[in-house]
Design brief:
The chain is of the alpha+beta class. The protein has 15 helices and 37 strands. A hairpin with a 2-residue loop joins β34 and β35. The radius of gyration is 27 Å and the shape is globular.
Amino acid sequence: MNTLYPAHWLSLAGERDTEQIERYGKPCPCFRREFSLLDKPLKSAELWATAIGVFKAYVNGEPADGDYMSPGFTDYRVRIPWLKYDITGLVKKDNAVVLVAGDGWAAGYMGNRMLRRNYYRDVSVCAKIVLKYMDGEKQEIITDDAWRVDTDEIMRTDNYMGEVVDHRAAKNKRFYLPGYDYSEGGWQKPVYRDYWINYARLSEEVEPRIKVMHTLVPEKISHSGRKTIYDMKQNMVGVVRLRVKGTAGTVLRLRYGEMLEKDGTLYVENLRRAESTDTFILKGGEEEEFRPLFTFHGFRYVEVRVTGSAEIIAMTGEVMYTALEKTAEFECSDSLVNRIYSNIVWGQRGNFLSVPTDCPQRDERLGWTGDAQIFCGSAMFNMDCDKFYRKYIQDLIDSQYGDGAIGGIAPCVPHTESDDTEYHAPCAAGWSDAMAVIPYEHYLMYGDRKFLKETLYFTKKYIRLTEKWSDDCIRPAEPNWGDWLNVDCNTDKSLLSTAYFAFSTRLTAKMCRITGDEDAAEFEALYKRIVAAFRKKFVKEDNTLTCHTQTAYLLACAAGIMTLDEIKPAFMDTLHAAGDKLTTGFLGIKFLLPTICNLGETQLAYKILCSREYPGWGYSALNGATTIWERWNSYTADKGFGDVGMNSFNHYSLGSVSEWMFKYCLGIMPEEEGAGFKKITLRPFLDPSGKITWAKGYYDSKMGRISVKWKTTDGKKEYFASVPKGIELTVDAPKDVKVTIERF
C-alpha cells in the first residue's frame, strides 16, 4: 500500500540530456510549500517523506532530523523506503517546509563503469504532512502543484565526483521561512513523475538513518603555495565542514585521499575515476561555512587548493555512517592487537552507510554480497546490526532473480544486469551464498524465528537453483571470484564452490528445522549428497585434498565435509610450509583462527594474530593503517602501493577475525539452541605462550551485557565473567583455569 497516497512525485522540469548534465548532473532542486495550522490545539505533526535520490527536510528553517543521505540505498525499481519525522516541536501557526534533493545512489554515478542515471534520470520527492488536533480532526498537506521548486547554491552533487557549492548563487535564505515572496525569480510549479513508481513498493524505513556520529579535528601537515594538506589522523568516511573568509569568487577545491605518496603528495590512483573533490566558491565579505550535503568521501587526508584569497578559520571532519549503537569492546595486553580491533571497527563504520559496502572511496561503493556475509558475524558483535541486516536481507531478496539466482551485489544496479558476470555472477561461491549465511547468522545473534521464517523461502529458492546448476552436486567452477585476494595461493574454484554449496545447504537445513519448515528433510538429504560428491572428487585416501591450500581445508571443515581429525595433518602442513603464516583471502580468513584453536593449536592462532610481519593484520597496522585494508599487500615497505585497480585502504572483509576475538579469545559462544543469547557457552582459549597476558571485553546482547576478563600471572590463569541470570549458561574452560562467574 502506498502510505503517502495521494501525494505526488515532484521533479524539477528542464533539460535532461545535455553533455554537461550527463557528466555532472543538475543543480539540486529545492521543493517548497507553506501551510497554516487550524485555529485549535494541535496534538501532533508528522512529516512523511521520501525521494528518488536523497533529500534533506527542513521545517521553518530547522532540519527535521539530523539524518543525511536519506532514504538510503535500495533498488529503487523495487522498493523505496519512506521516512517519518516528528515535527510537532517545529511547527507554528504559519509554516514553511522545504525538501532539498540530490542525485545520491538513484541518479548519480554507480559502479566502476561510471554510468549515471542507473535508476532514474531526475531526482524526485514525495511527501505528506499529517496534522492531528486535540479534537480528533486531521489535516493533510501533500506534494502537489501547490508546491514550488527552484535551485539554490548546490550546483552539482555526486557520491563519486563530489559536490559543488557556489554561495554566489544562493537565494535569500528567507525561502526556508513562512511569508517568503516568490518574486525572487526562478520558482516554478514542479512536474509530476508519478509514472516512475508504478512498480516500486513504498515501505516504512527499517534500518537506522545515516548520521554524523563523530567529529575529528585535523592537523595541518604541509603547505606549498596555494595547496595545503590536512591529516584527520584516522581513515574516515564522511565530509569536511569549513569555516572560511575570503574574497568573492575565491574557489576552494578539496581533494580527498587515504594515503600519501613518499614525496608527501596525495595518493589518489586507487580512486580510479572517482574525482572525490568538493568545490566551494565564496560569496565574499563575511565568514562563510561550507559543508557538502549530498555526498560522502573515504579519506584520511584532505588537500585544499585555493584559487583567489581565503583564510580557513576552522576545519572538522564529520564521520558519517548508519547510526548503529556500539555493542561490544575488546582489549588485551598487546597494543598492536588493540589497534587491529580499532581498525576493524573503523572499517565497519566507514562501510556501513545504508548497505555494507566493499569500500567507501573509489568508483564502486557497492553492497558486495561476499564481503557482507563473511563479515556479518563480526559486525553483529561490534554493533547492534539487527535492523541494518534486516534491511540488507531485504536488499538480497529484492535483487533475487526469478529463477532464484543471487548476484554479486545487492541492491542490484540496472547496468550490471547484463550477461557480464562482473557484478551479477549468479550462484557465485561465497558471494551468492549470502542468501543463506546472513539470515542464519542474524538468527543466531538476535533469535528472531519469525523473521527467519519470512526469509527462508528465498534461501530455499537459491539453494534449489544451485543444485540445478550443479553436476551431480559438484558446483561449477564459474562464475567464481575464488578466495579473493589470497596470498599467491589460489584454491581450486570447483572445490571451493562445492564446499560453499555444502556449507549453505547445511545452514538451510538447519533453518528449516528451526522454523518447522516441511522441507527440512529435502535439504538434509541434499547436504549428504553434496558431502559424498565432494569427498569422492576432492578427498584423497590419505585425507589430503586435491588442492592443498589453507582455504581448501578450512572450508571443507567449516562445511562439515571433513572432521578436524581428518584435516589436521594436511592443514597444519599448509601452515608450516608458509612459515606459520596465513595465505587465505576473503573466504578463508574467517575460519582460520577458529579452526586452528579447535585443532588444539591455540598458541599458533595467537602467533598469527600478533604477527608483525607480512602478511597479517599487524603488518598493516605497523605501516600506518587505521582501518582494515582490502589487500594484505595494499602497501608494503619494499614494493610500495599494491594494484591501483583494486586497492582500498578501508575494507572490512579481512577484519572478520574480530568474531574470533569474542567467541574464542573471550570465549563468548552463542548457541543455536537458545539463539539470541538466551543460551551461551563460555569456552575461552587463553594464549598458552603468555605473550598476551590478559584480555577483556563485553557484548551487549538482547539479554543484557556479557562481560569477560582473563589474565595469566606467573603461570596462574584466571577467568572472570559477568552474565545476566536470564541466560542459560554452560562453562567449558580448561581445567588449569580458575573460573569465577557472576550472575546478575
